[in-house]
Write a structure and sequence with these properties.
Elements lengths: L15 H10 L2 H12 L6 H8 L3 H13 L24 H8 L6 H12 L5 H13 L4 H19 L7 H13 L5 H24 L9 H13 L3 H15 L4 H13 L5 H6 L22 H25 L1
Amino acid sequence: MALELALPGEIVALSAQTADTLLRSGSGDGALLYLWLLRHGGDTPLDKARHAFGWDGVRLEAAQAVLTGLGLAKVAQPAPPPRPEPQSPPEYTAADLTRELDNAASPFPGLVAEVQRRLGKILSTSDLRSLYTLYDYLGLPAEVICLLVSWCVEEFRRKYGEGRLPRMSQIQKEGFIWSRQGVDTTEAAEQHLQRLALLRGREGEILRLLDQKPRPLVKQEQQWVAAWTDMGFGDDALRLAYEKTILKKQSMDWKYMNGILCGWHKKNLHTLAEIEAGDRPSRRPTGAPPAPSGAGAPGEAGQRVREDMERMREYMRRQRETEGG
């Protein structure tokens, strides 16, 4: 006598190897549980299977043991608990600061002197708290903090002119950004500063390309320029996106232009020829994006960054010699 399967159009796939494994096991409960899990996507809570079959807990555990023993299932590990949010920085007291400043073995006193020199003022107690937060709470090395301070000073000079200096609270805020980005070693800081200097030079070039007057970009505009640079767009592609923006919006609209460029990027179109032809070129190898055409040297800001790097290296060398003596 032959059997004809009911509902042949509703198929649950089962490989021959899996079927043979279940048949050799001789466990009807194991096979039934496997089929039930397969039918429900494989990740349904087992309590639902127990209720569906009317099994008790012992029978369910035995069927589960069969499947795990055959290598056809595994016990799902509970998801790790969410990482706790970082706590706020401690409220450092004047005694905490005094103790660290009096510690002859600590780099902190030398760091304070270097930051005061760079800012051209004596740090107040509030300033020292901000600096110590970078040093103690974030754990940034002294040379990284010096490079951070130098960069913030250069940014203020670029945005607001000579004589304007950042507050330590503003430097602390930028330090938290560096820390979140993993800029916590001298090597990482140097690479980060080189990239920032390149982007600052690129900002001026792109403003000229977009028929804009020279000015410091706001934060969102800086992020867009960085994204376009990382995507690998050259001047010709940017100019075309700008012209399309003007044609549509009748004026410069950064958000709209960014949408055009992101659309081209998703299609892997980055050069003028690729965009005009609408071709999908061969996939670029992974790694650093190509330098956009027209991107020049970092300029004066980059030179100041390099000078600060050399001065920080010399400062740290003297610091080590002092500690060794």
